[in-house]
């Protein structure tokens, strides 16, 4: 045998295995883009080609209804007894407590909603006079208990009866805070030339009455200190909402102003005055669009014999109008007697409601 030294080899192996991992991490993590010829030569799949194929095979409305219509009908049929029970409970409680409405913040299933109403009904049997303090209010089942920025009674679905009872007992003090809030809105309106301060549930974060009052109070005190000169009632008919998470004012397509709580008063004055006419035009368009939207909803409901046609809060009137116009051009027998929700995605809800995206495609998918 040859007596050769292998120390240099062992040293080399040690160096290879002890290379710090951080050096490897310096490599770029973006995928390498190979030329098409590479895939032709190696036989490997081109990921871009796979994506193109998926795009070409994109779901269409008719194909999705063909595949999911029957299961939706079955789920809807199974949910009908519970839906009747839900309507009965809602009407019974609304009458008993003299409520304006009972609503849900989330898309809970019918069984879940029935359970929540049964729970409220049992509480009403135990503390009817206390719950009657909510006379004229809207009750909303949501994630936390309290009063919302617009004065709805919020019942947290994870809270026990004791928490609900305490909330109903405190309603008179909430009503008092609500009156003070309305006065604060009027004072802000007066300082800003008559512009109306509104809270739009669909477009703003869910705030309690206390949180919203605090927001208004901060804004009002800043206005008082600056004393921006607006001509009295010069901005009547216009609307604004307050935002705590924005830094610059903006004009929404629906015609209202988005005003940051900590907005610079001088910038605010310039922005509102230069955009006032555009805001009036946007508001007029919004009203016209709402009329068209309602007409198209009625026409679509009638044509397809839908039990119900509605949209998610995140769907704008423009999107709903576009969707309904295109639906009316189709023949869709699967929709007969169904509950149809216009959304951003395809889905069959647990109780049989059909969700379709507002920008659904038919025939050959549009890339």
TrEMBL record:
Protein name per its UniProtKB record: T cell activation inhibitor, mitochondrial
Q: Which InterPro entries match?
A: DUF4461, TCAIM
Top-level taxon in the UniProt lineage = Eukaryota
Domain named DUF4461 is located at: 59-361
Pfam entry (one): DUF4461
Instruction: Identify one Gene Ontology CC term for this UniProt entry.
Output: mitochondrion
The scientific name of the source species is Papio anubis
| Gene from which the chain derives | TCAIM
